[in-house]
Amino acid sequence: MTLKAVVFDLDGVITDTAHLHFLAWRAVADEIGITFDEAFNEQLKGISRMDSLQRILKHGGKEGTFSDEQRLALATKKNALYVQSLASLTEDSLLTGIRDVLADIRAAKVKIGLASVSLNAPGILHALGIHQAFDFCADASRICRSKPDPEIFLAACAGLNVRPDAAIGIEDAPAGVEAINAAGMLSVGIGCGLNHAGLQLHSTRELTWKCLTEFWASRTYC
Ligand code: B16
Ligand code: MG
C-alpha cells in the first residue's frame, strides 16, 4: 500500500510549547494551593485543557472542590497566561528537522495533516509561519474526546480524504501514540517512554523523509 498522508501532533513534535503550558498551569495551580512539577506535567501532554485541569485538581486532592463555572474560570485564566507566553514564538521556534521533513513530504506529493487537541493550534502555526504547509488541520473545538481516543487522528484522516491505514501519525506523548494506534495508523513516537510506537525516535532531528519511507516499507505490504 502506498503512503498517502503524514499526520503531525503539534506540541512536542512541531514546536515545544509544553514548558509554556507548564508555567501557565503552575501559576493558576499556585493560586488554589496546588503544587506540581514538570514530571507531573508530562502526563498533561496531548490532554485537552479541561481534562488537564481535572488531572491537576485530582493531583492536589481538590477534584470536587470547584463548580463548573469556577473550573471554567481557572481554565480561562490559564489560557490567557499561555496565550501571552505564545508571543515569544517565532519561525525559529520550529523543532530541528521539521521544516525539512515538511518540505520533503510535500515534494513527494504525500498529504500533510495536523492532529493537535490545542484550541490555540491555528495561532501557533501562524506564529511559526507554517500554516500553509498543511493540507488539513483537524478542528480541536469539534473533538469530544481527548487523546488517547483516536477521534482527532480519525478526523485528520477524514479531512485529508485518506484511509487511516494509509497514513503515519507522529506524536511525542504516550496518550497520542495510543490514539494513533487506535486509529489504525502507523505510529512514530518522538522521545522516550513510547515503546508502544511502531517506530521510536530520540528527537525530531531523526525525523526525515527517508526514515519515514523506510519505516512505511518495513511495515506494509504491496
Ligand atoms: P490548549 P497537542 C496539547 O497539544 C498539549 O500537549 C496539551 O498540553 C494541552 O493541554 C492541549 O494541547 C490543549 O491545549 O489549552 O491550547 O487548547 O500535543 O495535542 O498538540
Ligand atoms: Mg504533543
Automatic annotation (TrEMBL):
Residues bound to substrate: 9-11, 25, 44-49, 52, 78, 116-120, 147
Localization per record: Cytoplasm
A GO cellular component entry from the record: cytoplasm
Extent of the signal sequence: none
Active-site residue numbers: D9 (nucleophile), D11 (proton donor/acceptor)
Cofactor note: Binds 2 magnesium ions per subunit.
Names of the cofactor(s): Mg(2+)
UniProt KW keywords: Carbohydrate metabolism, Cytoplasm, Isomerase, Magnesium, Metal-binding, Phosphoprotein
Residues annotated to bind Mg(2+): D9, D11, E171, D172
Gene Ontology BP annotations: carbohydrate metabolic process
InterPro entries noted in UniProt: B-phosphoglucomutase_hydrolase (IPR010976), Beta-PGM (IPR010972), Beta-PGM-like (IPR051600), HAD-like_sf (IPR036412), HAD-SF_hydro_IA (IPR006439), HAD_sf (IPR023214), PGP-like_dom2 (IPR023198)
Principal location class: cytoplasm
Reactions catalysed according to its record: beta-D-glucose 1-phosphate = beta-D-glucose 6-phosphate
Keyword Cell division in annotation: no
EC annotation from Swiss-Prot or TrEMBL: 5.4.2.6
Positions of the record's site feature: Important for catalytic activity and assists the phosphoryl transfer reaction to Asp8 by balancing charge and orienting the reacting groups: S116, K147
Single GO molecular function: beta-phosphoglucomutase activity
NCBIfam families from the UniProt entry: bPGM, HAD-SF-IA-v3, PGMB-YQAB-SF
Family: Belongs to the HAD-like hydrolase superfamily. CbbY/CbbZ/Gph/YieH family.
Protein name: Beta-phosphoglucomutase
Source organism (scientific name): Enterobacter dykesii
